[in-house]
Amino acid sequence: MLYQLIRLLAVPVVKLIYRPEVRGAERVPAYGPVILAPNHRAAVDTTLLALVSPRRVRFLGKAEYFTGKGLRGRLMAAFLDAVGFVPVERGNAKAGLAALESGRKVLDEGGVFGIYPEGTRSLDGRLHRGHTGVGSLALATGAKVVPVALTGTEKLLPKGKLFPRFAKVTVEFGEPLDFSRYDGLDASPAIRRAVTDEVMYAIAELSGQEYVDKYHKRPGEAA
């Protein structure tokens, strides 16, 4: 009910202020497990995608965001759960496996799970090589993968600015990708890579971004 209330209140405001252009929402399968695989340009991407998706979509969120104390902490946890965040521990050796397991649980229940294949926001505007988590989840669960292109979100809140700006924002959902031809091959690293690369090429085609076949490095990381 809280999720429906948030959508009821937030969606009209987002559409009135930012007027996002949404294309291809009807391509998202109406039922069954689905992975939404968007490019990642800004911190607002997750919230925007959650609001315009025709189905409720779940994303990973830091577990500490859900453990605040007092009324404020409980309200924050309830809000994050309502808008689709799934708590997951980070910063330890098992974090990656825990994240995939959380995603698999959502998909096994027939839900929609959102994952950024690049693993981090693009700082140079290009689309970078995808990590194979998206391929692993698709192969393990049989979920269809819907590539998503987010355009203009990086202009809503430029680095160093405190208040959002007006910018033309587009969210385009691509045709669902079906990888059932690889049934039983989810243990193969080569197949996981092939699936992930196909997803990335589909995102690149939608977004028009230059594709770089290297993982994105954050400032300060070793090349």
Automatic annotation (TrEMBL):
Q: Does the keyword Glycosyltransferase apply?
A: no
Task: Cite the PANTHER family for this sequence.
Answer: 1-ACYL-SN-GLYCEROL-3-PHOSPHATE ACYLTRANSFERASE
Q: Name one GO molecular function term.
A: acyltransferase activity
Keywords of this entry: Acyltransferase, Transferase
Residue ranges of every copy of the Phospholipid/glycerol acyltransferase domain listed in the record = 34-153
What species was this sequence derived from? Amycolatopsis deserti
Q: Which superkingdom is the protein from?
A: Bacteria
This chain's protein is named: 1-acyl-sn-glycerol-3-phosphate acyltransferase
